Amino acid sequence: xxxxxxxxxxxxxxxxxxxxxxxxxxxxxxxxxxxxxxxxxxxxxxxxxxxxxxxxxxxxxxxxxxxxxxxxxxxxxxxxxxxxxxxxxxxxxxxxxxxxxxxxxxxxxxxxxxxxxxxxxxxxxxxxxxxxxxxxxxxxxxxxxxxxxxxxxxxxxxxxxxxxxxxxxxxxxxxxxxxxxxxxxxxxxxxxxxxxxxxxxxxxxxxxxxxxxxxxxxxxxxxxxxxxxxxxxxxxxxxxxxxxxxxxxxxxxxxxxxxxxxxxxxxxxxxxxxxxxxxxxxxxxxxxxxxxxxxxxxxxxxxxxxxxxxxxxxxxxxxxxxxxxxxxxxxxxxxxxxxxxxxxxxxxxxxxxxxxxxxxxxxxxxxxxxxxxxxxxxxxxxxxxxxxxxxxxxxxxxxxxxxxxxxxxxxxxxxxxxxxxxxxxxxxxxxxxxxxxxxxxxxxxxxxxxxxxxxxxxxxxxxxxxxxxxxxxxxxxxxxxxxxxxxxxxxxxxxxxxxxxxxxxxxxxxxxxxxxxxxxxxxxxxxxxxxxxxxxxxxxxxxxxxxxxxxxxxxxxxxxxxxx
Length: 564
Description:
This protein is an alpha+beta fold.
């Protein structure tokens, strides 16, 4: 392989945040690797999913959310996969993308979008300020096997993963378990977050372990506000789809242009809503400082009674009922009689009269004349009525900052697998198109399939990007490291002839003998870069040959002689 191709193919194994940014086709390769994994197909046998056999994909997707909530933690420990040097990473990709472009879109290289997520700098937030400024973490994405294996790591009782891992897991599971066609799943990456937009009903957005429907997007809760931060505040860097990808910095795109236009149209509709009483209530729920300008009214045996809006929202906070939906009357019944008054509260807008205005004129706040009409109605009550109207319009309608559609579109072979295909059929199909679809080819590297992949990218990844194993063994001699590995659990987190990387072995405390051999080779090479290392793989036995020989038993059944 040439240098750049070798970087790409070895990156399909380590899958760091920066690697995916530079090589966007890697994102969909991980989704395909998860689709090929036997783990997701085993989920289909779970009793909770079998009960939904005759239900539609939307219903199954709602069940999938609970399954993921129950079985995976959100892990945002950036040091899980160790540390590297900023300049080293920039040098790796200088032929593919400029350091300025990387710095403008990656928090670890200068991007400041983290201000939308944290009150402090991202380095301080994650404890990285204790390191030299050139030291940064490997922010790596996990396969479903690596996510499941967190249960073997100290401090965890279930699987885990960071946002990109969870997004890839959701996309693959939506297809395998819920029967959502790949055509309806769009992966959406920003510098600090990864989500999926699923074109079902009014649209569903995945957000870490949760799902956000359109109704939820506009409910005005603190949890939803957090789910909105990426799309509201950040540039979308990559949109990945079964037809290809589009990248904000690259002039060429491989995604089908019509599919990208469909995504743009659908997500635009998901992120917009007409103004109605329910939307007004959601806006006030999210912007509590405006509640003091409103009052709610109820009819009590022919007599109007009034309650301060902030009082009613306080009741709502601890109730199962909500303002402005079908449970509104039940919420009013929970309010103490002492909180109602029999006179109209001065200086406050009556929501019933505002509701009449909205129902009569159906204002579209994207139009100036409609904003002016609403402003005129409220300006005698709210000091800065124009600001209120602008903020309400921003709550109801906004356009995400997507990669520009004016690209050179390269026609590529799309991934054509169906929800009725078996796992075996999918693997056979992806194998068949590897020579004409690079994403499919890369998927087998992300899948770690050593029966069909070249070894050079695997060796490169193992000996250059696995700092956790080096740190764990830093106070050990080579002989002590060998003993440590020999006493470790001896099963691989990957089935068949698939190989875990050294840091997966060390993080989870388990590995096949061949995987342990790579751990030891990584340690030896780091201690003495001039030392030639050979790994002799012969079915059930693997021998690491350096100044001494170290023997491991292997169940992988592979045969290879590797000289590093």
